[in-house]
Amino acid sequence: MTASPVDTATLRRLPKAVLHDHLDGGLRPATLVELAAEVGHTLPTTDPDELAAWYYEAANSGDLVRYIATFEHTLAVMQTREGLLRTAEEYVLDLAEDGVVYAEVRYAPELNVNAGLTLSEVVETVQEGLAAGMAKAAAAGTPVRVGTLLCGMRMFDRVREAADLAVAFRDAGVVGFDIAGAEDGFPPAEHLAAFEHLRSESVPFTIHAGEAHGLPSIHQALQVCGAQRIGHGVRITDDIVDGKLGHLAGWVRDRRIALEMCPTSNLQTGAATSIAEHPITALRDLGFRVTLNTDNRLVSGTTMTREMSLLVEEADWTVEDLRTVTVNAVKSAFIPFDERGALIEDVVLPGYASAL
Ligand SMILES: [Zn+2]
């Protein structure tokens, strides 16, 4: 395959699908400044550009725990109905602007209840904001479909409650579940009861695994908990020696389990060393179902267009490669099979055909 030079404007127009993006990691800096002033929360700086730079620096620590600590500021402004409505609506509009046609947004409702909203009110409010964003994006000629993944925080004790919420809201915009938070020291199997409940209710879920911790975490997520996708999963490469797959890596590739890979985020937390060497390229070549994601757009200072651009410039990716990961993402989305097929046939493939 020859590398086709692609400019940023072309990349921005390409249809994109993102499976791994945190609502509380993607606020607009200016919105964060405004909402913080309203609720009396002190930020490191009140200049939006400086704030964006502060996030990028703080997130570049090479440590997942410090990376996660930056979320205290975004979460501080996401405790009220007003804050949730605005951040959810802008979330959708920003993705539409970036050329995203399908997204799964994730967040942990238990982190939004400090001002008295109930867990259910949090979910209802976010859905209302997302719906408003989708209506505006469609009216502007850039329709984007957004499904919600509810998260439980793996280091706290409300994961089962979050799973119950996912079941309760499955017909109201919630399409699946995840656990988030510090991976090291909090293995997925500690929340087995929640995952068994989701499986018995046929609610699909993904699990953050193989980011800060290695193969045992991925093994537990898949073979003990029964995850249908893996968040990050970069450490699956530990089970591949000289291109030969071990049993777990073989399971991931052969069962077509999507890896939700987030190159910039992985560099920042130390899970990968460079874009050029990021495992997404080697795993693509080995036939894994890799997908490309942003993880946290504010915290990592990125967008889907930027992630694509980095792979094109630093890892010799082509537009065909970008089409492949986009189709992969839609294939592994947690929405019904017929809707995934329609998105691929009617939106993704025509969009790439006109760019190629
Ligand atoms: Zn994540």
UniProtKB/TrEMBL annotation:
Spell out the protein name for this chain: Adenosine deaminase
Q: Which reactions does this protein catalyse?
A: 2'-deoxyadenosine + H2O + H(+) = 2'-deoxyinosine + NH4(+); adenosine + H2O + H(+) = inosine + NH4(+)
One GO molecular-function entry: zinc ion binding
**GO BP:** adenosine catabolic process; hypoxanthine salvage; inosine biosynthetic process; nucleotide metabolic process; purine ribonucleoside monophosphate biosynthetic process
What residues does the Adenosine deaminase domain cover? 15-347
Report keywords, A-Z. Answer: Hydrolase, Metal-binding, Nucleotide metabolism, Zinc
Q: Where is the active site?
A: 211
- HAMAP family attached to this UniProt entry: A_deaminase
Site feature Important for catalytic activity: at which residues?
232
Query: Can you tell me which family this protein belongs to?
Result: Belongs to the metallo-dependent hydrolases superfamily. Adenosine and AMP deaminases family. Adenosine deaminase subfamily.
Question: What InterPro entries does the record point to?
Answer: A_deaminase, A_deaminase_dom, Ado/ade_deaminase, Metal_Hydrolase
Its biological function?
Catalyzes the hydrolytic deamination of adenosine and 2-deoxyadenosine.
Instruction: Quote the cofactor binding remark.
Output: Binds 1 zinc ion per subunit.
Q: In which residues is substrate bound?
A: 22, 24, 181
